[in-house]
Amino acid sequence: MYPVYFATVSTRAEVYSPLQNTAVWLAAWLYGHEPSDALVGAMTELHGRNSYQGEPLAHLLHDVRVSTDLSTPGPAVRLILSGPGQPPELPAGSESALAAAEVSGGSAIVLRGEGDISHILVPDGSGELGRSGEEGVAWRWFEEPGPLPEPAWLSPGEADALLSRATNEAAVLIEAAGGTRAELADPRLTVGTLADFYDTPGLPMGTPPRAAKLFARADAVAAVIETVVDRLHDHSFDPQLFSLWRHIRTARMAGVADAVLEYQRA
Hints:
Distance between the termini: 42 Å
Radius of gyration: 18 Å
Number of domains: 2
Oligomer: single chain
Strand content: 5-15%
Structural class: alpha+beta
Helix content: 40-55%
Mean pLDDT: 82
Number of strands: 6
Number of helices: 10
Low-confidence stretches: 1-8, 127-134
C-alpha cells in the first residue's frame, strides 16, 4: 500500500530512476550504436559497482545480448516505472513485480525475449542507487512467460503534451493560492543544479531529439518539485505537485520507447 502522507515520501525516488538512462544505453549498445566500454562506463556512473549472480557486469551484458530478441518489431527494451496511482506494468503477484516493488520502488527494465518471454532486470541496491560508486547494485533477473500488461504506448508528443498541461494546471493552482511560503537565495540556480543531476551522465550519441527533449522536460519538472518540497520544505502544494509524478514517469517511459524504436530503425 502506498504512503498516505505525501511528506514522508522521497521526492527524488518518485520522479527519477537511473534505469531511464540505463535502458537507453542498453538499447544503443544492443543495436550497435555504442561500444561495450561506453555502456560499462555509463552503468558504473549511474549505479556504482554492478554485479550479477556474484559475477562482474560483463556476465549480465552477455545474458542480455543472447536473450534479447532484436528482430521482432517494437521496442526490445522497455522501462517500467511505478508509484502512487500507477502500478507497475508487471504481472500482479509475480516474482518480478514483488522484487521490483521491494528493492526499486516498482521500477525495472524489460527485455523482449523469444516468443512471449519477457526478461525482467531489477537492480537490488544495498546502498544508494545512485552515482556515489560506493555501494552499487546487484542485478536480479526474472522471466515472465506470458504477455505483460500493456503500457500506454504514448508517442513523445502525446506524453509531452500531457506533462505540459499537468504542469501548467499545477502552476495556475499554486499561483492562485499565493505562491510558495518559503524563499531560496537563488531558486533558479537550485532548479538548474538539480536538473543537471537528473541528466548526468547524459544519453548515448544518436538519442533521438524527441526523446531527449521529453527527458529534459521531465527533468525540469522533477527539479521544480524537489526544490519546493525537499529544499524549501514547503508542503502547502503537495497535492498539486505530487499529481505530476505520474506524468513525469509516463514521459520517461515514452521517451525510452521512442529512443529504442529509433535505434532499431537506424
